[in-house]
């Protein structure tokens, strides 16, 4: 899935089933460890955040996108470049709020949940919460609220992630930028 | 023209802090780069050792960098620094250091005048044969000195004023920056970088991208996340922009994807070192025309 420097131009592809299995093993182990769906959701979000702060550097190093000037550009880059690069899917962007600070990403198919069914005793588990954490971590210079509002695992037709811009975090900006 | 001191080359005695910038510039940079704050030209007012001048014997230094003189026309990348968002140095590599140390045997009395300065013993008078004023005493009889004390703990000047210790073999050379000095210089550069973008008459300017002297060019690339990659190279070396992007990729691969590496901390990853050295060698071989691919 990631190109390794010095191994030539052939990109190393990994089986996506292995990825689905790995993620599934992760979630089930967390469920056993924490027993409480809310805690599992929080842990997934935290793990996603740590992935996000590292993934953003990889993304910027490989994709050469410049700085985004408004939230719409951010949304475009996330959906059309980032999701394509890392998950191979291109979600659509809809439901912009009037102020332009909230939008929804509609995922037709979510590679994390291939072959997954949520049992009844885990009804409040947000299985793909890792993705919310990743998006939060990648956008670490601003505070964004990322949450799932629709989930195919819970019976909805599509998976919908709602992203809301809250504010810029001045402390995280590089020195010298206003 | 002498530069007021707002930007200095990275090598002079760092113990004396550089004077705070009193005037914006001396006119030597502005007249040539009107409105472009990015390029700062500095004129090195002090005599620094020019590569190849007067080197009598070159001894390999105690660290691992290559110091053999290069064939005429070959380019070199001198060093790489990585600075984190807060201005701390998290990685430093000296790839090539053009050292011309001189080791000679002396008999009593010593015809050089040595004087203590900062924490070293330097030559104050008596320049000859590759030993220049300002060179520090690096080793006595093969054993490296520790500041002003010999390896045995005796004071260097006392040792050299005692005729019983002669004949003695002393190695002189330009002092190497210690890691503390490098840390300090990196954080100073970080501040200057920020000043560079604030001085700009245009909104949204980048910080310092290049610092040019007659012996090296410093290239700096700041990522959108605030990490700075700084490369010091020969002024004729081309392709440094591509090299900086490559170093960013290597960082995002071998440092960030190592789960045991914590962000913003010093990078101590073997794979990062190896791949960085490889990338530097590729860039150097390409010479003044940039890398082929």
UniProtKB/TrEMBL annotation, chain A:
Record-linked InterPro entries: Bet3, NO_sig/Golgi_transp_ligand-bd, TRAPP_component
**Which keywords, in A-to-Z order, does the entry hold?**
Endoplasmic reticulum, ER-Golgi transport, Golgi apparatus, Lipoprotein, Palmitate, Transport
GO biological process assignments: Golgi vesicle transport
According to its record, what are the GO cellular component terms?
endoplasmic reticulum; Golgi apparatus; TRAPP complex
Q: Where in the cell is it found?
A: Endoplasmic reticulum; Golgi apparatus, cis-Golgi network
Task: Give the family from UniProt.
Answer: Belongs to the TRAPP small subunits family. BET3 subfamily.
What does this chain do? May play a role in vesicular transport from endoplasmic reticulum to Golgi.
Self-association and partners: Homodimer.
Instruction: State the name under which the record lists this protein.
Output: Trafficking protein particle complex subunit
Q: Which organism is it from?
A: Gallus gallus (Chicken)
From TrEMBL, chain B:
Region annotation (Disordered) maps to: 1-23, 41-66
Gene Ontology cellular-component annotations: dendrite; endoplasmic reticulum; Golgi membrane; Golgi stack; postsynaptic density membrane; presynaptic active zone; synaptic vesicle; TRAPP complex
Instruction: List the subcellular locations.
Output: Endoplasmic reticulum; Golgi apparatus membrane; Postsynaptic cell membrane; Vesicle
Q: Which UniProt keywords apply?
A: Cell membrane, Endoplasmic reticulum, ER-Golgi transport, Golgi apparatus, Membrane, Postsynaptic cell membrane, Synapse, Transport
Comp. bias regions, Pro residues: 11-22
Q: Which InterPro entries match?
A: Longin-like_dom_sf, TRAPPC
Q: Which GO terms describe its biological process?
A: autophagy; dendrite development; endoplasmic reticulum to Golgi vesicle-mediated transport
Q: Cite the SUPFAM superfamilies for this sequence.
A: SNARE-like
Annotated Gene3D superfamilies: 2.30.42.40, 3.30.450.70
Instruction: List the CDD domains hit by this protein, alphabetically.
Output: TRAPPC4_synbindin
What function does the entry list?
Core component of the TRAPP complexes which has a function of guanine nucleotide exchange factor activity for Rab1 GTPase. Plays a role in vesicular transport from endoplasmic reticulum to Golgi and autophagy. May play a role in dendrite postsynaptic membrane trafficking.
Its quaternary organisation is:
Component of the multisubunit TRAPP (transport protein particle) complex, which includes at least TRAPPC2, TRAPPC2L, TRAPPC3, TRAPPC3L, TRAPPC4, TRAPPC5, TRAPPC8, TRAPPC9, TRAPPC10, TRAPPC11 and TRAPPC12. Interacts with SDC2.
Family (UniProt): Belongs to the TRAPP small subunits family. TRAPPC4 subfamily.
Q: What is this protein called?
A: Trafficking protein particle complex subunit 4
Query: What is the protein's species of origin?
Result: Gallus gallus
């Amino acid at each position: 899935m990631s190109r390794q420097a010095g191994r030539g131009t052939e990109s190393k592809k990994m089986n996506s089933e292995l990825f689905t299995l790995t993620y599934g093993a992760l979630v089930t182990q967390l469920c056993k460890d924490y027993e409480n769906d809310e805690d599992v959701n929080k842990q997934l979000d935290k793990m996603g955040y740590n992935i996000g702060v590292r993934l953003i550097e990889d993304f910027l190093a490989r994709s050469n996108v410049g700085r985004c000037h408004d939230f719409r550009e951010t949304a475009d880059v996330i959906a059309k470049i980032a999701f394509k690069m890392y998950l191979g899917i291109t979600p659509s962007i809809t439901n912009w709020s009037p102020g332009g600070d909230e939008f929804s990403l509609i995922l037709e198919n979510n590679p994390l949940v291939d072959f997954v069914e949520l049992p009844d005793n885990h009804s409040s588990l947000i299985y793909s919460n890792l993705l919310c954490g990743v998006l939060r971590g990648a956008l670490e210079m601003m505070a964004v609220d990322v949450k799932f509002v629709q989930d195919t695992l819970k019976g909805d037709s599509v998976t919908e992630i709602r992203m809301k811009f809250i504010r810029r975090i001045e402390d995280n900006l590089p020195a010298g930028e206003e | 023209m002498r530069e007021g001191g707002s930007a200095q080359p990275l090598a002079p005695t760092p113990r004396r802090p550089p004077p705070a910038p009193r005037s914006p510039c001396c006119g030597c940079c502005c007249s040539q780069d009107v409105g472009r704050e990015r390029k700062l030209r500095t004129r090195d007012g002090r005599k620094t050792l020019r590569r190849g001048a007067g080197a009598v014997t070159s001894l390999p230094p105690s660290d691992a960098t290559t110091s053999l003189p290069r064939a005429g026309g070959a380019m070199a990348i001198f060093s790489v620094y990585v600075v984190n968002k807060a201005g701390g140095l998290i990685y430093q590599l000296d790839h090539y250091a053009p050292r011309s140390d001189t080791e000679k045997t002396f008999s009593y009395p010593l015809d050089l005048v040595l004087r203590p300065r900062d924490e070293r013993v330097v030559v104050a008078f008596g320049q000859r044969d590759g030993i220049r004023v300002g060179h520090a005493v690096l080793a006595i009889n093969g054993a490296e000195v520790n500041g002003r004390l010999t390896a045995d703990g005796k004071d260097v000047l006392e040792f050299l004023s005692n005729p019983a210790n002669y004949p003695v073999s002393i190695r002189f050379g330009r002092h190497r920056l210690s890691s503390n000095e490098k840390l300090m210089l990196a954080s100073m550069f970080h501040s200057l970088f920020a000043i560079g973008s604030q001085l700009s008459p245009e909104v949204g300017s980048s910080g310092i991208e290049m610092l040019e002297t007659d012996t090296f060019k410093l290239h700096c690339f700041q990522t959108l996340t605030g990490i700075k990659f700084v490369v010091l190279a020969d002024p004729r070396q081309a392709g440094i922009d591509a090299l900086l992007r490559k170093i960013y990729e290597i960082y995002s691969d071998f440092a960030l994807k190592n789960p045991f590496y914590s962000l913003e901390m010093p990078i101590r990853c073997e794979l990062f070192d190896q791949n960085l050295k490889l990338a530097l060698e590729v860039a150097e071989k390409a010479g003044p025309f940039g890398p082929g691919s």
